[in-house]
Amino acid sequence: MTPERVREILAAVARGERTTEEAVSDLKLLAFEELGFAKVDHHRALRRGFPEVVFGPGKSSEQIAEIAKTLSSAGQTVLVTKTSEDAFKAVSAVAEDAKWHASAKAISIGAPPKTRLGKTSVLCAGTSDINIADEAALTAELMGCEVERIFDVGVAGLHRLLAHRDALTESKVLIVVAGMDGALPSVVSGLTDAPVIAVPTSVGYGAAFAGLAALLTMLNGCSPGVAVVNIDNGFGAGYMAGTICGAIRE
Is residue 19 part of a domain? Predict the structure, then answer.
């Protein structure tokens, strides 16, 4: 249940187009909807400004499809993260406008808001980090951010990053995705006054410890203005960027 939908219901009552009882029926699932295996939080968009997001791992394709159908039927934007093409097939069977984002390994239903928030640039150090960067970019876009993707600009060739100085200075928020040594967020933070959201990835050789080395590097970075999300959590970074851009606009 989005704020816009609540306003529509109340306005219809005020105009005499719907009765009080009909409005009560419209709003009966305002808190959550019980599916047996899940309690779908229809109130999330009212509290947080964006609907509940579905984390794919651990859920069957049928469960994902049922949750997505429930959210979509209530007029809410749907985002399923860390999921599969099999789940997409199940979702597309119940929602014709479902989209499969192969690189981000995500499913979406619904378009981004027409009114755009501030610009968010999503950078990644290497091509192997792109899937996590795309997950972050997709999330930020669905939350209303204007997103620019800047890929393969790691510290092994800083001239590639410096070629995008204009985009860095124009951005309200920067999401920086990196595996291996995880050094890129500190470098980016030293070049701009925008907040940096660092995303460590599980990319790297044995001593990278599936992203732990990059995570520790980012947590210990000496450049200020960097916040760090969990390993491979592109969604969390994109959501935080959307929250920051929304707050700046207000």
Answer: no
